[in-house]
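USER:
I would value a second opinion on how I read folds in token form. Give me a protein, with the fold worked out from its sequence. Write it directly below this note and I will take it from there.

ASSISTANT:
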Amino acid sequence: MVTNEQQKKIETIIVNQWITPVFQPIVSLKDGSVLGFEALSRVSQPGLFDNVEELFRCAEECGCIWMLEQVCRRAILQEISNQKEMLDQYSAKIFINVNPKVLHDGKFREGFTKEYTKRYGIDTDRIVFEVTERERVEDEESFCQAIEHYKSQHYQIAIDDVGSGYAGLNRICNLTPGYIKLDNAMVRDAYRSPIKYAMIKGMVEFSHSSGTLLIAEGIETKKELDLLIELGVQYGQGYYLARPQAKLVFDNRQAVSEIVEKNTANHIHNHYGVKKYYIGNLVRTGLTVAPQVTVESVLSYMKKHDEAVGVCVVEDEQVLGILTREKLFQKLSGRYGYSLYYKKQIIDLAEKNFLQVDARTSISSVAKIAMERETDDLYDFIVVKEDDKYDGIVTIQDLLKKAMEIDVDLAKCANPLTGLPGNLVIDQEVKESVESGKKCTIYYFDLDNFKAFNDVYGFEKGDEVIRILADVLKKNAGSNDFVGHIGGDDFVMICENFQTVAFSEKIRIEFEQRAHMLYREEDRVRRYIQASNRHGVIETFPLVSVTIVSSSNEREAFGSYDEVVSTLAAYKKTAKVEKRQLATG
């Protein structure tokens, strides 16, 4: 119920137009570029309404919502016009919140004609109407018609607060918006909630199939940011990236760096399977209690919460012991179990010898350790710590499920002979290396005289040669380097640092030493074999070797992806010619 004092305050704000817009960046979670800015309204005079949501709620109750929103929109458009140069610099869109009850009002349409927005120097295709899902729409059909009208005027539509309101997927399906904004309640601590994780993952899949782009609101921690990137959410906003501010600017270089680095790490994780995927990504919230809490209290909680897998006894952010649900009930069962233990402190029953790992430990390492435990402890949950403090738990089910999921994804794009990523992934890696501007060296490896070896020794031996080269490359690659198998006898390696000639020579020597052991002794001694050339004529061929060429941005920036590929192809051709000339004397 709106009081007379509140109504007078609202009227004062409207009459004096005491509204100031602020802008929060909406950022690509792929590369940190700016998609647009959400325009938010603030009361410019103190002592009226400190809570903006309360202001709009009261304005709607007392019938002033249209006038208040009009003041807000006018202030937003005027400020955008003043900062038009900055808006153009980012090629950014402006996201404007609109109450669904106002959107199909005739006066609103008049206020957003093309002619009206042109006064402020803003094209309609730069404006995105954010329609909140929190508000009930009485006439959904009329509402949808209004949306179609704005789309025909080249405005774009975003459904705001998805996951918190009335219409859900029905409204999304009816409106076919360009953007879906995930409510901050769905994003908050999603890395700890299997349900939120699954919901966001499902929305990402929907996004891919429908062509609608996702924007995650309310990102406040690095863990939330990392999870959203991992799941493939395209855009995000929140205090961790940037707070709302008066200027149309985004200058959080640290956040951009973290976004780029996380995407790079994700590529590596996906390409090499579980060994590079960290256990911290699977952490869920566990029940934690102080050592002095009674067994009776924990038991009561467990009976009310079937999802609780156990309890961690924590003091000063350190885990002193754990007790799984099954073992708790087991101890309390039997003729005297309950009477013996229910008044004791939980620390007395907790197991002090438990598996605890750092959040940056790889899934494969944790799985190996977990599966080597004693039979009684085999399916106990795993405690995860970060910065040497308790972070959460991971169940064996979650661990094995994720490991299998990653391995399946890896298998889809891997070369069946070597298990290395194939052409699709290689193209993505090279493009990202070229576009990121980070220092790197891109290598191309191609075998010489391989066809002749295949013809004389057979395909099985030929496959062994290829596997040897793959093994040599993997062994010499750094922990953050990428190795891919183009197909046949062609490979690519991307090193995150600039490498010397000695690096290439080490690979060449190691490969040739191992590959030459596949030849018969007489062929190794004379250093050549005889085979038919492409024209069917018997010819002498040297032993198999590897041509290695590279390109780096050490002295000059990479050009386009096509330029890098063309450069490497030209280098390879030149190197092959030089080798043949040396061989023929």
Remarks:
- The chain is about 45% helix and 20% strand.
- The two ends are 97 Å apart (CA to CA).
- Residues 561-583 form the longest helix (23 residues).
- Residues 268-276 have pLDDT under 50 and may be disordered.
